[in-house]
Amino acid sequence: MADSFGAALSAPHKPHPWVYLDSEIVAAAEALVPTTTQAFNYGTAVFEGIRAYASGNGELNVFRLDDHLKRLERSARLLLLKDLPRLPEMRAIILDLLRRNQASTDSYIRPLAYKKALLPGFGFGVKLTGVSTGLAINTLAMGAYMPADGIHCAVSSWRRIPDSSLPARAKITGSYANSALAMESAQRIGCDDALMLNVHGNLAESTTSNVFVVRDGQLITPPLSAHILEGITRDTVITLARDELGLKVIERDVSFSELFSVDECFLAGTGVEVVPVTQIDDCKLQESGVGEISTAIRRLYLETVRGLNTKYARWLTPVSN
Ligand code: PMP
After folding, report:
1. For 198-235, b where at least 16 C-beta lie within 10 A, e where not — what string?
2. How far is Cα 318 from Cα 321, in angstroms, rounded to an integer?
3. DSSP labels for 95-108?
4. What are the beta bridge partners of residue 113?
5. Is this structure's pTM higher than 0.90?
6. 164 C-alpha to ligand 1 centroid (Å)
7. Is the dihedral of CA 167, 175, 75, 242 positive or negative?
8. Which atom belonging to ligand 1 lies closest to the Cα atom of 68?
9. Burial, 194: exposed, middle or buried (Cβ in 10 Å; 0-12, 13-18, 19+)?
């Protein structure tokens, strides 16, 4: 199946042969870490999910690479992950790895900075200081995997972890146990993903994406204070909606019951891209399928990441030299 932009849906994820691990590029089969790795035991790693898109002229461009790397730096600071390459070096490592992997089709990039091993003189235990830092970067060939005609979401009984317990703005591996629980229970009842409420009972985000709703032609999304990740796609959507569609975008709390009275809803994230939600729990949002605003934003987003919208060329980093 292919959507109107030519990306294969449910495309297989094909890992690239080379992986960056702790200052070296090694064959994927040799990119191994010991079972004693601190991050493996305690969930103390931070990561990014980044996409690179093939443009019409055969060039592969990474979308908003520096913004992802800035977020990685901030996430790393929260977990006291020290001695990581600075942003320009990290950018060069990623581009170099993609070239080494001869990536030419849509790709996914996963840098992961992790708590590695106790430093000499530091005793056993759950801690952040006295632990060395590791860095792994995997890349894979990956196309779109969400359907253009929309998905069904369940409102999860699992609440989003409060920011005061685990920082929501940081992509910490440990917090994804929360996402996995919500995703699992949603899929077990036949839904595609879950909408998660925060400790106040308002909409937070989905398991791996931010959420937008449309009411009376206005775009509404929970504020950063709603215990959500500061999504880069969220920011892209807000920019495109305001500047290209002239829409009013409001960042405000969305209560549980409001979810069932919206005109449209869609998820926005690097992995899912922009995917319409056509049903929440047992409530169909639109008898006619995908709403107009969701369709327009999805189209604009896919044009932008593929370099068809030259106004946003600043968001693209070419992989080739
Ligand atoms: N929320 C969560 C929990 C996520 O994992 C992601 C994916 N990184 C997002 C939102 C969307 O963020 P982005 O648009 O930066 O990929």
Report:
1. beeebbbbbbbbbbbbbeeeebbbbeeebbbbebbbbe
2. 8
3. HHHHHHTT--S-EE
4. 46, 135
5. yes
6. 19
7. negative
8. 15
9. buried
pLDDT (tens place) for every residue of the chain, 321 residues total: 334 333 334 556 899 999 999 999 999 999 999 999 999 999 999 999 999 999 988 899 999 999 999 999 999 999 999 999 999 999 999 999 999 999 999 999 999 999 999 999 998 889 999 999 999 999 999 999 999 999 999 999 999 999 999 999 999 999 999 999 999 999 999 999 999 999 999 999 999 999 999 999 999 999 999 999 999 999 999 999 999 999 999 999 999 999 999 999 999 999 999 999 999 999 999 877 899 999 999 999 999 999 999 999 999 999 996
Packing angle between helix 232-243 and helix 292-305, nearest 10 degrees? 110
Strand partners, 154: 194
CB distance 229 to ligand 1 below 6 Å: yes
List 61's β-bridge partners, or say none.
53, 318
Q: Are 233 and 268 in contact (CB under 8 A)?
A: yes
Q: How far apart are CA 310 and CA 314, in angstroms?
A: 9
Counting from 1 in the atom list of ligand 1, the atom nearest the Cα of 235 is 14
Residue 211 corresponds to which tokens in the numbers above?
């959420």
Please state the atom number of ligand 1 nearest to the C-alpha of residue 71. Answer: 15
Task: Summarize the chain as % helix, strand, coil (round to 5).
Answer: 30, 30, 40
